[in-house]
Design brief:
Blueprint: H1 7-10, H2 16-30, E1 37-38, H3 50-63, H4 79-90, E2 102-105, H5 108-114, E3 125-129, H6 134-142, E4 148-149, E5 154-155, E6 158-162, E7 180-184, H7 196-209, E8 212-216, E9 242-247, H8 249-252, E10 260-263, E11 269-270, E12 273-274, H9 275-286, H10 292-301, H11 304-330, E13 335-337, E14 343-347, H12 354-365, E15 367-368, E16 370-371, E17 382-386, H13 391-403
Parallel strand pairs: 1-15, 3-6, 3-7, 7-8, 8-9
Antiparallel strand pairs: 2-10, 4-5, 9-10, 11-12, 13-14, 14-17, 16-17
The protein binds pyridoxal-5'-phosphate (PLP).
Length: about 400
């Protein structure tokens, strides 16, 4: 008789986006004349850059001819893409990453979920609270998190690191020692960033404790401030304790095209064992590569035209972020994020809970955002708006919120 992985049964349903969907549907059915503006989802809206489209067409044509057709991609990804990454994302920032330390994938969600494969089930994880839910849920599936307590909304075997106004949404070093530390900067959902000295503290801590940092830099392209590191490897010693995850989703609009990569330096070891070798083995066994066409599209992101065009897209979204931040601040809200990330994290007014504020905004301004409590208990009393909408709808949403007084 087969048995299932019972860890899956421990997962509480993810009600966040389905509850939002239901509430919005009920509201629109009752108010068909109202125009809803959605600033809730973390998906991009601008089309792929022309340089990317051109590369996609060209690669598609190559697939049509016997001489240029491509079958399975190399295990770690095509060298042309890994070289472009090593040169542009690392060398240009003074960091030496070899191309065999870069693993091309179909995105940071899969990588952040799959990376747990190479770690023992008895490792203890530490996560920020609030947090991108994939880190915790995938560790629950692996049996690493203990039991869920519905009252505290916490897992018994997870170290939570609250990120609140008091610590400027950057976690403090935990009192209990973790084995695996998940950090995401610039952050989803709070939009906060970490300075280089602050990140260096985490690297020093991980080295001292023998912990590994899984550093999710999916929003790196949104960094606008000088003192914010673009890669954890800008920190001294990080190659010995950190894995970095990257994505083409938010810097180049690949959410539906799918491309990302993970960096595991060869210096990162457990005893004599290189994590790089373990991940290479895992990657080669369980993954058959991102499509050639997509990898060529990824390469085009690093062309001169691609860089210029994707920079313009990011500037467009970040102008929306500015509109939201300035508008809400003028309306008396306490707002953070939106400077190095496309997320604006606001404090709900009048001690409203996150869901109360969600209902209030939906009913009074017909604007949809995301309740902060959906990302973890420390998100209660906060609310996330995203800069990924159109300029016109963002402007209108903020005007409506301002009119609420
Ligand atoms: C922090 C973070 N990591 C990873 C991802 C997923 O990225 P990808 O589209 O590359 O899977 C997201 C998407 O919203 C995210 O917010």
């Amino acid at each position: 008789m087969f048995k299932i992985n019972e860890n899956y049964l421990k997962l509480p349903g993810s009600y966040l986006f389905s509850t939002i969907g239901k509430k919005v549907k009920t509201f629109t059915e009752a108010n068909p004349d109202k125009k809803i503006i959605r600033l809730g989802i973390g998906d991009v809206t601008l089309p792929l850059a022309p340089a990317v489209i051109e590369a996609l067409h060209k690669a598609t044509e190559e697939m049509a001819a016997k001489e240029t057709f491509k079958g399975y991609a190399p295990d770690l990804g095509y060298e042309f893409l890994r070289s472009a990454i090593a040169k542009n994302d690392y060398k240009a920032r003074g960091v030496d990453i070899a191309i065999d330390e870069i693993f091309i994938s179909d995105g940071a969600k899969s990588d952040s979920g799959n990376i747990g494969d190479i770690f023992d089930v008895n490792n203890k994880i530490a996560v920020c609270d609030p947090v991108y839910p994939v880190y915790v849920d995938t560790n629950v599936m692996a049996g690493r998190c203990g039991d869920y307590d519905f009252a505290t909304e916490r897992w018994s075997n997870v170290i939570y690191m609250p990120c609140t106004e008091e610590n400027n949404f950057v976690p403090e070093l935990p009192k209990e020692t973790p084995d695996i530390i998940y950090l995401c900067f610039p952050n989803n959902p709070t939009g906060s960033a970490i300075t280089k000295p602050e990140l260096q503290k985490w690297v020093d801590y991980a080295l001292e404790k023998g912990a590994v940092i899984i550093y999710d830099a999916a929003y790196e392209a949104y960094i606008s401030e000088e003192n914010v590191p673009h890669t954890i490897y800008e920190c001294e010693g990080a190659k010995r304790c950190a894995i970095e995850l990257r994505s083409f989703s938010k810097n180049a609009g690949f959410t539906g095209t799918r491309l990302g990569f993970t960096v595991i330096p060869k210096e990162l070891k457990s005893g004599d064992v290189m994590l790089n070798s373990l991940w290479a083995r895992r990657h080669g066994t369980k993954f058959n590569g991102a499509p050639y066409i997509t990898q060529r599209a990824g390469e085009a992101v690093y062309s001169e035209a691609g860089k210029k065009q994707t920079r313009e897209q990011i500037a467009y979204y970040m102008n929306n972020a500015k509109v939201i931040t300035e508008g809400l601040t003028a309306a008396g809200y306490s707002v953070s994020g939106g400077v190095n990330a496309p997320y604006i994290w606001l404090k709900t007014p009048d001690e409203m809970t996150s869901w109360e504020f969600f209902d209030y905004l939906l009913e009074k301004a017909n604007v949809v955002g995301t309740p902060g409590s959906g990302f973890g208990p420390s998100g209660e009393g906060y609310f996330r708006l995203t800069a990924f909408g159109s300029y016109e709808s963002t402007l209108e949403a903020i005007e409506r919120i301002k009119r609420l007084g």
